[in-house]
Design brief:
By secondary structure, this protein is of the alpha+beta class. About 20% of the residues lie in helices and about 15% in strands. Strand 6 and strand 7 form a beta hairpin.
Amino acid sequence: MKTQYSPTIDTSGNHKPPVPHYFPESRQTLRCYSRVLKSPLLTMDIDPARRNKKPRLLMENEREKLDEFVDSIHYSARYNDDKFEYRHVQLPKNMLKKIPTEYFDSAKGTLKLLWEEEWRALGITQSLGWEHYEVHEPEPHILLFKRPLNYQPPLQQ
């Protein structure tokens, strides 16, 4: 049986996904699709292929090796454009030698884009909402972060 899909375009120009009418989970699928479209990674143009598929947490012995560098991490002042607030974080160069190889992009020789759990495990401390979106390739110890301008963290329930 061939099902006809009819994607529609509303007046705002947003494409709506086709919904097969015979699937009872169609509404659930739409809710999931909606969550994906609102994902911070998509709204902030972060390439998921440039990070680990899931956060790779540090082992206790790995974390201990990095503890000596935490006080030497430098945080820039914040700066912004009309959409985002930015800052860069400068890791001590010797710290890069102690970070596990799974955090690195072997093709570029720089850190991958890190999940929040990963950069926090390295000892980087920032308020909520920051996403690691780029590495300054000439200086791989400099990590670039951004978050939406006027970011408000979600309310705790």
